[in-house]
Amino acid sequence: MANPKITGILKLLDSHQKLVAMVHATWCPHCTQLLPTWQQIMEEHPNANVYDIEQKEFDGAVGSKIGNVSGFPTILSIDEVGNRNEYRGSRNKEAITNWIMSELKKGNSKGKKKSPPKRKVSKRPSRGTLSKKQKGGYKYPNTSSGNRPSGPRSSGRRKTGRRTSARRSANAKKNKS
In terms of Cα–Cα distance, which of 71, 73, 84 is closest to 18? Predict the structure, then answer.
């Protein structure tokens, strides 16, 4: 038999009405501390679409309609279009009630779901990219000469490494002749 509370929540979501809910778990100490406050808010606003959803009830159809919950307790609102907004404020009764009322009074956002913000792409090339001016080879764009930048990170090898072995082989050739 289906839970009437969950059936009501699913009907609200399907009919595109605003909903505010707290998703909680019985094993969570923060949830058990906040639950009496949340029940008082629900009793004070019986006509508002304010619900509490236990973790066991959240799995399944409700979870797929509302979305992922990363921690408990999670207080969230869903508007007519399906946009989700999580509460991030204080856990006292006044702050939560003010947030719920502001969420329920928000204007109808009849339209499409909000798209995620576009990523900003920097116009400046990153270090190590080829310059458009240079026909071949590697050009370092952040230096004035275009040569490899100087400094402690510019040279990864020891100064004596290759030169010394080249001198030895040249000296060995001279000594043989």
Answer: 84
